[in-house]
Amino acid sequence: MKRTIFTSTLTALLITALSIPGTSSNRFYAHAQEVGADAAPGDLDTSFGDGGKVTINLPGRSVYCAALAMQTDGKIIVVGNASSPEDIVVGRLNTDGLADTTFGNDGFVITDFSNSADSAYAVALQTDGRIVIAGGSYKGSAISEDFALARYNVDGSLDTSFGNGGKVTTDFSGAGDVAFNVVIQTDGKIVAGGSANNPNSHSSDFALARYNANGSLDSSFGSGGKVVTDFFGRFDAITSLAIQPDGKIIGAGYTMKSTAADSIDFALARYDAGGSLDPGFGISGKTTTDFFGFTDNIEAVRLGKNGAIIVAGECFSGHGNDFDNFALARYKANGTLDESFGTDGKVFTDFAGHQDGAFALAIQSDDKIIAAGLSIVGDPSAGNDFALARYTPNGSLDNSFGNAGKVTTDFFGKGDDAYAIALQPDGHLVLAGDAFQPGLPSASAIGIAVARYKVGDIATPGFSLGFEQSPVAGERGTTVKVHVLINRTGGFTGNVTVTPPDTSGLGIKVKPPVDIPTTEDLVTFKLKLKGDASPGPHQLTFIARDDSGRTVSATLTIVIQ
């Protein structure tokens, strides 16, 4: 299961990936090199950080990374926690691994909720670039943890239009609640998923909360914005979320079927847009999967083609030395296992006969699957390494990747864990977690670790927005045409729906005032500039999404004369 990660105030950074004479010890530095022409899928990208790796340590405190997100400009958002005191850390790296000093304080921001323990486990980016994180915040005792969300502007400052000064907490039942994942709907609403303890039965349930764009609970969802789901009356938790193109929400995690320690299984539930369980999925909206009769747990869920649902986590296999392995499963749209994947819908992967676990998942445009996490590949006393495995669409290991489909990466020889993954459109993969560096004081020896790999020359299908002309100008009383360009990449030919900007209060009327779906590369809107329109430059944001839910935006400058 996902380990508990704690948090702390970030005051200065000690970068330990590389020591460069003449550089400050509390500023980020990473060395860039030329990528070798013979780099193969699974190789580290040596143009990133120091030989493909970056670590970030905080003097006097342990720092962990639980999540990452990729901005449209290729910059990397890392989210985690530091210990003593326990606060949330959000950072941004440039494309080469250097800290982005335009973000927060030299690239990093710390957030405290309640002068107690706070944690962040997930991050999602809005179409306007704002950053939403989710986790938990204690109010003073071990049973008083609540869902905790925060939203940041693109410069790292808290967005004061969200919740209370940029922060929101949500209590379910007065006991311990924590959010492990967060996703953004196409309408801008925010869905967080995790677990909610039931103080009466001493158990926990799947827990979902949906928020409006301003951070208030969405009363149209569940009961006052919240939903809890019990499986077998014991311990259940959502560890990952996905939103289908039809708006249905998939929560994936684990359930405990009985009091036996080995009774934990994969668990999924699907909800309609209002928060009710979907009777067309599994049994009354829920499904569970056991591998070998031992402990199994989902850590990540992603959507594939034709309604497929792919999950990754770990299973206790009962094979060899009886350690956990990478575990994957693929389900059909109705929640039944897809028997064309692996063995009866399931796949497990052992690296070196010791402990393995998958915590993150990515799907390439060619339907190959990459699972990432940790593995003990040598002496167990040395701890874990970053671990990757790539699979063909049928679930077999892809021999063209790494060593027979598997890759491990060691940072300092003493314990590295990967928890988050992101694919870049240029054929690279970014992996983030934490690494232990011997030689540093024990209190600060654990730091954020990021590695980038070459995954192959795969052009990811996608699109971006642009304009035939920007800025545009027009006089009051006239009409201006705006041609919105849909820049398609990687062979993407699917439908894109373009939403016009909100022009209320500007004296601008948009025609047509509705969404325009298209499979073409251009759509046209007319902007009627009323006689009382406000003169000067104005920013108008157009938003577009495809049928998979992928959303992008672009901002046009119009100058009213």
Report on this structure.
With 561 residues, the chain is mainly β. 0% of the residues lie in helices and 46% in strands. The strands form nine sheets. Strands 30-37-36-32-34 form a five-stranded mixed beta sheet, with no helix packed on it. A four-stranded antiparallel beta sheet has the order 1-28-27-26, with no helix packed on it. It has three domains: 1-125 and 410-416 and 425-458, no CATH class; 126-408 and 417-424, Neuraminidase (6 Propeller), CATH 2.120.10; 462-560, Immunoglobulin-like (Sandwich). The protein has strands at 53-56, 63-70, 76-82, 87-93, 108-111, 118-125, 131-138, 145-152, 167-170, 177-184, 190-198, 203-211, 226-229, 236-243, 249-256, 264-271, 286-289, 296-303, 309-316, 324-331, 346-349, 356-363, 369-375, 385-391, 406-409, 416-423, 428-436, 446-454, 462-467, 472-474, 479-489, 496-499, 508-511, 516-518, 522-529, 536-546, 551-560. The chain is globular, with a radius of gyration of 24 Å. The chain is built from no helices and 37 strands. Residues 1-37 have low confidence and may be disordered.
Question: How many helices in DSSP terms?
Answer: 0
Measured as a percent range, the helix fraction is: under 10%
Radius of gyration equals: 24 Å
**Which sheet architecture does the biggest sheet show?**
5 strands, mixed
CATH class annotation of the largest domain: Mainly Beta
Could you name the CATH topology of the largest domain?
Neuraminidase
Features:
single chain, mainly beta, Neuraminidase, 5-stranded mixed beta sheet, 4-stranded antiparallel beta sheet
